[in-house]
Design brief:
Number of domains of chain A: 3
Number of strands of chain A: 17
Largest interface: A-B, 96 and 96 residues
GO molecular function (chains A, B): catalytic activity; FAD binding
Strand content of chain A: 15-25%
Oligomer: homodimer
Largest sheet of chain A: 7 strands, antiparallel
Strand order of the largest sheet of chain A: 14-11-13-12-16-17-15
Cofactor (chains A, B): FAD
CATH class of the largest domain in chain A: Alpha Beta
Family (chains A, B): Belongs to the FAD-binding oxidoreductase/transferase type 4 family.
Helix content of chain A: 25-40%
Organism (chains A, B): Yoonia vestfoldensis
Keywords (chains A, B): FAD, Flavoprotein
Chain lengths: 470, 470
Amino acid sequence: MLNGVTPEFENRLRGLVDAAAFRADTAPYFTEPRGRWQGQGLVVAPADTIAVAAVVTACAQARVAIVPYSGGTGLVGGQIMEDGPAPVVLSLERLTKIRAVYPSENVLVCEAGVILAHVQQAAEDVDRLFPLSLASEGSARIGGLLATNAGGVNVLRYGNARALCLGLEVVRPDGTIWHGLTRLRKDNTGYDLRNLMIGAEGTLGIITAAALRLVPRPVQIGAALLAVPSPQAALDLLAMAGAQIGDGLSAFELMHRQGLDFLAEVGPEVRQPFETIPAWSVLIDLGLPASGDPDAALERLFADAFDAGLVSDGVIARSAAQRQALWDIRENIPEANRRIGSIASHDIALPLSAVPDFIAQAEVALRALGDMRINCFGHLGDGNLHYNIFPAKDRARGADDALRPAVQKMIHDLVAALDGSVSAEHGIGRAKVGDLQLYGDPAKLAMLRAIKDALDPQGIMNPGVILPQR
Amino acid sequence: MLNGVTPEFENRLRGLVDAAAFRADTAPYFTEPRGRWQGQGLVVAPADTIAVAAVVTACAQARVAIVPYSGGTGLVGGQIMEDGPAPVVLSLERLTKIRAVYPSENVLVCEAGVILAHVQQAAEDVDRLFPLSLASEGSARIGGLLATNAGGVNVLRYGNARALCLGLEVVRPDGTIWHGLTRLRKDNTGYDLRNLMIGAEGTLGIITAAALRLVPRPVQIGAALLAVPSPQAALDLLAMAGAQIGDGLSAFELMHRQGLDFLAEVGPEVRQPFETIPAWSVLIDLGLPASGDPDAALERLFADAFDAGLVSDGVIARSAAQRQALWDIRENIPEANRRIGSIASHDIALPLSAVPDFIAQAEVALRALGDMRINCFGHLGDGNLHYNIFPAKDRARGADDALRPAVQKMIHDLVAALDGSVSAEHGIGRAKVGDLQLYGDPAKLAMLRAIKDALDPQGIMNPGVILPQR
């Protein structure tokens, strides 16, 4: 059994770390983006790795739970512990040093509390790209991005957070420090602890620093928004783009018109690129080396795809501003969704060839459950859809929230039947623990449990995340 | 304590699997490429995953060790158990089905006994590339390549085996089967078991099938062999090539003239491309999409690098045959090395910027140990050197083998001091268990042991590999 934070325990921590580590206003740490859960506990923000280790050691000795807190942007409740004995909420916000940049190695070493946008900027400062990019990049921090193996819009080309990390420094659940901050591209010396920690959502330790992979900055950038007649046409267009453009294809985002309608309805205001909004469109982004010609590549792709009946209309960005305007549409959809207020949201992955089937079947099944609006968008190149369900236009926000369990179960059952994943990039957190137990392979579940028990035998690290709390 | 295979146990296995699973001639399974270790045990080659599970279950019940055996090409003794109670040597050679190919998803699902060259061919048959490529591709099998997280010549562009695998089917040490053969690009549902199994060298379970990632086949191929004045110049050339060519750079191999001298001395016969063999040369490979022009890219790179003093001479392949001739040089160096007979061989990785220092310091330190020849070559783009030491030209093969421990210790000490890895791509096997204990971070070693004990509590899976046998 775990113990809650007591005044005595708080005093003990106050003796271990500086006064600046304690927070008077804890409200921001106890709410989360969709407002679905309410947290609790003692918020502590240590100043460095040694201080993190001191706090963790004290928690281990007292069997007090630890909830690691990074940017607070997670969507599955991994950063929020509603119930149980009061935990220490361990915030990474003061671990904000970029420790070193090695342009000739394409490596940047930073602490876990650095905000993603700052890492992107530091890379740009040495003419490199850190390719991780997602809507919350202005507030999400590296530690949480790694702990959740974050995805985003450039996974197609550069992989997810896992693919962008070479080494880690981690404070283990007993307070010892794993010094694994290697800058090596190859290192076959034992089990892959780095990838085990990445995506473990703070249940096996606390990431305090990381060696991140940079890439040469593509200098010839291009983007196009193309109207496609169907999801299958979008997939065929993806294959055509892959064959013509190869690795230069950075992003391939699918959007249903519902997202553009939401933007028109509630904002944020964006420039609508089509006179008549098409049912489906794809946003394509290219990044080529100096010798490349993205406009020519996009024009050729558009012409060939048009001839093949794969696109019916399109806009090719002619400037950086136009490209940004296209991306503004895609990047503001999550905010429009928040303004409308979803009944249920799903972050699913499917085998690429199953995507059209899923979209067709889910629509039919949803209609049987009630009159709702579907906003289906996402990273088609990765088979990753954000499939979000909203009340009908005449219904009030929240009026149909009672449908959430039935909607989620239907969607997740369908995803499982099509060999998909009920969490493509957001993780399990506390929200999807039941889904993992329900849909997870039994041998997999046995291994997850064995690993958790082996590396965190007291169960103090982010209890109730990924696996049910014991 | 483990039990050895007894006649009774063998009879039990004969009742579980077909007669064709048993091997009369076991000699090939008990020798390895460099002839350094001699194996033992009962060789069993089950016909399918169910049969693998039956054998493993029987071994688990009887506490008999299992040595997974794939292509037998490993260089660190992972496939050879010299001592201890006789194990079951479980060969994957009959698991040779390619179960499915999904060209539109860029996925191929095959069993673990498929030879790498066959996977490459199956990918080519659907106009795709399976990018894993290494000298032993004609005999190495997928299971072993994944178990050792194999590298090879295309890691720079496509990553190692880990980056080329989407899903696994694994027989666990208790005989249960983990059905993890997903074709998904994104799946954040729990700890990363796939990457834990990949690189575990058969100590946590037996990989029986894999979903592999294919890529669009680069259609415009080019190669060049360029003479460089120094390892530092080679690194600067790598940076220049990255900036000019971007992702199209598939391979960047460094070769010291010693390798070309060995080829001239003992074969295999290759066409020497330079009139005077340069001290250092790099082999560059490009693969571009249809619109690319690799010749123009290589000519521009050569011209710019020549002007910058980074290359002094070079050959650009003008045909597929010429390209193959350049690659023949690189790919035959390991065979030439075998014909000469090394005193010690090292598969090391370094932070890129530390490579020139290592090469300079190691040469001085070696000279202090004796008169030896150094063949330094490898995947410079990954910071991965094969740094192999041979007797002086007038010394007989094997005459200086007594120097091996001192040479290895000096090299590995130097690698550790430069934040490198003592096993870049070959793994730990049984050969480097002591090195891992000596150079490994204590927190890392504790986690490796905890994971091994959690997932293989009886310690029957490939005992003595990665970690010391208990």
